Sequence to fold (84 residues):
Amino acid sequence: GKPDQVLGALHFLRDIEGLDDCPPRVINALFEQANIDPPGNLSLYINRLLEKNFLSIAKKHDDKNRFAELTDEGRKHLEKKAEN
Fold:
């Protein structure tokens, strides 16, 4: 579903591309490049992933979603999804 796609996009941008800052336009552009409909309400998906402890935001960034990073739990969730 979309939350897993958002998690995967953040994993790609943060962990593989090495970006520190992922504003919505960067995430949406990645979806468009992959010919996948971008998530309409990105902050809603990010907040859900934060609630599940799949993402975290360092305190120094004042809870700005653009600085969300995958937690170990988030990475394990993606790995599990990739195996199926």
